[in-house]
Structures are given as C-alpha cells and as structure tokens.
Amino acid sequence: MKFLRVLKNENRISSETVQQAYYPEHKSDFSIKTVFSGHRTFQLGKRQLNLYPESFLVIKNGTSYSSEIDSSVPVNNLSISFSPSFLQDFDRVQKYNHADLLDEPFQDGDHPEFSFMETIYPFSGDMKYNIMHLKDHLEKGTPDDLLINEYLHHCLINYYKVYNKEVVDKSEKLNFLNSSTKVEILKRLTLAKEFIISNYNKGIDLEDIARHACLSVNHLLRTFKQAYGQSPHQFLIKTKIDRAKYFLRNTNYTINEIVEIIGFECPSSFIRLFKSMNNITPGKFRMYS
Fold first, then answer.
1. How do residues 166-204 score in pLDDT, each as one tens digit?
2. Could you confirm whether domain 176-229 is CATH 1.10.3470?
3. Strand partners, 56
4. Cβ distance 77 to 57 under 8 Å?
5. CATH-assigned architecture of domain 235-288
6. What is the pTM of this model?
7. d(CA 250, CA 55)
C-alpha cells in the first residue's frame, strides 16, 4: 500500500510498503520517520542510521539526506513532514504566555527555529499510540483534515515530552558546570547511541563506539553512564534484547534464527540473559505476546 496525503496547511504524510527502494538526496521540512517492519537506512552527511520499529527518527528542516530500503521482508514505513508555518506556530504556543498569544494570535514574523536534537528516539508510549492511530485513520481514507491535524499536533506534543526525557533530562545528569560543555558532550553521546542502535548486530566494540563519538574510551564510559544510567555495553545488550522481543512478537523466526540476526554468540547464553532481564523465557514471551 502506498499513499501521500497533503493537507491544506501543507503538512504531508506519506507511507508505502516495499522491499527495495532508493530515495535520492533531498531536503525536507521538519519530519518524523517511522518503520513498522524491517528497517530503513538513512544517510545524513557522514552519519548512517538504521531505523527499526522500536525507534523513530527526527530530521530537522533543511537537512539534506538520502535513504534506502533493501530487505528480504516488506518494510512498512511512514513519514510525517510539518510545514514551517505549522511548526513555528506550535513552537510559539509552547513558549509564549497566554496574554502574549491573545495579543498577537496570528504573528507571522521571525521566530527562532524549532530547537531539538536530530537523532533516533525510542518509539513507545504516547508517541507510538498517537502515530499508530493516525496511521489507522489514514489507511481507512479518513477525509477529515481537521482530525488529521489534531493528530499531528499531538505528535509534536509527544515529541516535546520525548525530547525532554531523552535530551534535556539526560544533559542535567552530566557533571559539568559549563552548559556549552554539557551540550557538546550530549551531542557526542548521541552519536554513540545512534552508532550502537544502527550497528547492534555487527560485532562492534568499545573502541568503535568511542571513535564514532569522537571521545576517548574512558571519557565515553564515564559520561555515558552519567547520562543514561548504564554503560555502552549494557545499552547494546538492551538494544539486542529489544530487537529480539520484536522478532518474537511479530515473526515466525526460530530462536536460533533470532539469535543469529541480533548477533548473539549462542542460543543458550541468549536464553539465560533474556530470562534474567525479563523474568520469562523467550519461548513463553512469544506465547503470551
């Protein structure tokens, strides 16, 4: 299934299910990218990001990027692009008090660019719930632009919440007095997280992660733990287990096949670790999911 919906205010939603596709480099408006099966590879400058169903990607206005899908299974992906005027108005409403908004309800002048970090975020909770319902309405052909725009408004509200949890709160945990140092450290830690998520099954080591983040190994270890409450190794293992949960819920792959896909050494060690982290074996997890 493939569709493109362009609303009156120039917000755009597109979706398609493909196994092979290449999307040439282009610039877009502020956008949220998701996949519901398989994965999609994005190239943002020198950064190569693999997007899986457990995450969503935010791309800022004006960023040049290309992407590719090359999969043995159909990849269902959805992209939401927000018009600059809709985004600017939303951001203004979040930052200004009611009195100012009443005095200038339709202000079209210069406004600071919507501020955020362009990266991969967890796709769960209210964010996932809202987008799944939006997707359902779109696939049913709901003609009501008002309803669709309300869903897009809530996408941005939920993104604000995710951003505060994943970026603002994490930066506060870093033990640096200088705010610019905190921002730079978090940017580099974000590169480390992206690299782990995108290459979780490729046998990466600590030196690979540190090099990608432009941090020394020990600096990475110290600051990653401060920000995220876990080591890079623990984050890598959690990423593997989360991917395993997805395959257990949504595919018929055997345990041995899943172990190979996620890059574990052997089924027995995977089963022991899965049970220790979830208090249930992979087989029972699949049965009850």
1. 998 998 888 876 888 888 999 999 999 999 999 999 999
2. no
3. 34, 121
4. no
5. Orthogonal Bundle (1.10)
6. 0.91
7. 16
